[in-house]
Amino acid sequence: MSYKQQVANALHTALEQLGAADFSPQKVAEMLETPPNPQLGDLAFPCFQLAKTLRKAPPQIASELAGLVESRYLDKVEAVGPYVNCFLNRSLVTAEVIRTIAEQGPAYGSRNIGEGRNVPIDLSSPNIAKPFSMGHLRSTVIGNAIANILEKHGYRPVRINHLGDWGTQFGKLIVAYKLWGDEEKVKQEPIKELLALYVKFHEEAEKDPSLEEKGREWFKRLEDGDEEARKLWQWFRDESLKEFMKIYELLGVSFDSTHGEAFYNDKMDRVIRLLEEKNLLVESNGALVVNLDEYDMPPCLIKKSDGATLYATRDLAAALYRHETYDFAKALYVVGNEQRLHFQQIFRVLEKMGYEWAKEMYHIPFGMMLKDGKKMSTRKGQVVLLEEVLAQAITDVAKVIEEKNPTLANKEEVARQVGVGAVIFHDLKNYRLNDINFSWEEMLTFEGETGPYVQYTHARACSLLRKGGYQPGSPAFDLDAGALDSAEAWSVVTLLTAFPEVLDRAREQFDPSQVGKYVIDLAQAFNKYYANVRILAEDDRIKMSRLALVAAVVTVLREGLRLLGLAAPEEM
Ligand code: ARG
Known about the structure:
By secondary structure, the chain is α/β, with parallel strands linked by helices. It has helices at residues 3-18, 25-31, 50-54, 58-68, 90-104, 134-152, 169-180, 183-188, 190-207, 210-223, 227-251, 268-277, 311-326, 340-352, 386-404, 411-428, 440-444, 451-467, 487-508, 513-532, 540-564, and strands at residues 43-46, 74-80, 83-88, 118-122, 156-160, 281-284, 287-290, 300-303, 331-333, 361-363, 369-371, 374-375, 436-437. Helix 19 (487-508) packs parallel to helix 21 (540-564).
């Protein structure tokens, strides 16, 4: 139990004695504040809300309460005006958090909220034959981190790559390939070549509108299972996926399912039948739609006038499939903010169909990646290939390592972990809905709020443990808390105790940036401790006690980075 909760329990017991039993331990914990300066203690309990229950003035309540609070976690309790100020027994808190982390290791902060229930997470989901965009990168790293955090709290995340592998554009692509395509070129650089064909199709179609008609025909053939169309589509899909896999491998992300849109082809009739049965389908200009007037939303388009189904229809089929397959606790969609309306429509349609579980579906939107204030776009062949971004980051880090630590073992591996980590962290330290400005400098520096900074701090802490001959686990039980009596150590300790709460917030809000910001704070606090306290002291017990705190920092930084999807090399 956190010390905050311990203090809240003690306050609760005292409140019971005063006759305010309706203030539960949990409520009290929520009411606890951090005083504006340390002279006022570590925690303050405001008594305003009690005035009504107890029919007394808050300062009087505070002074009565202060006399009743008792806890071995508290050195001193003092009433100041309407507040009860609590001064922690810092040695006890310090010793406990160090011991807890030493005992639990990477499991520190784990909880069983999810009770093993499934949470399908729709993430990444790039479009076949198109470049993997910055938006897809954001979805991949945000979705993966959310999956890790949910898993830490007892859910079973199911990572689903809902590939954009269906739609009229594949008809166009087939036409373009048959007219101007070259097998060898596609094999060599599939995405680049297929994108070029697609762009060319649109240029030519402006001069010759009959191409559009041909595109529709070929898509129809594809939908009807025509062998040639199928084969080409399968080939485009395979080649594209091979390219995407390179990126996933670099990022260290894997999927439990790559059922894309095409997978739902034979599952859409059922959706349409269900909608019909429930009298939800209406005709509008020859198309079939579900009206969403009552939600102030435009209608959801289910079937076009030419009979073709749509993105939304496939998402409805996918939602039914996921519910039936996973019996989920929640279902998440990590997709850019520009699709907000689409998902609201899907969820509302499911609600209208009478599915209670639609309430447990969440769109998790995120902002854009900007470069010089503009959206990083992949249109018109002007491709910012993500693979190139990752490769560049790795090369840049490799240069820094070559300068700073040329004798480092497995340099390449570390350069990869840090380069890729820089890209991931650059994304995850920001609240997901904010737009991000893509900046090499900001991403790669070993100082400042970056992935490399946190990883470097972790490596530094590891090297300190090696130098000090620290054996993991052992000294935590013979700790000299006096050796850790400094403002710098205390900042580190309070951050360590906060890790579980940070994870709670991150889980509740689907917000990995809580963890991103936290590891920066912890790294900064650790570096102050490192700079101001002689950790490798003469006296062995003092040294080991100080190192025990370092070991706790290593464990938590490492686990925080893991949750975000970053490796934590022990040397760099
Ligand atoms: N392929 C889509 C795109 O790139 C994203 C798909 C998101 N997932 C979903 N179930 N609709 O815009």
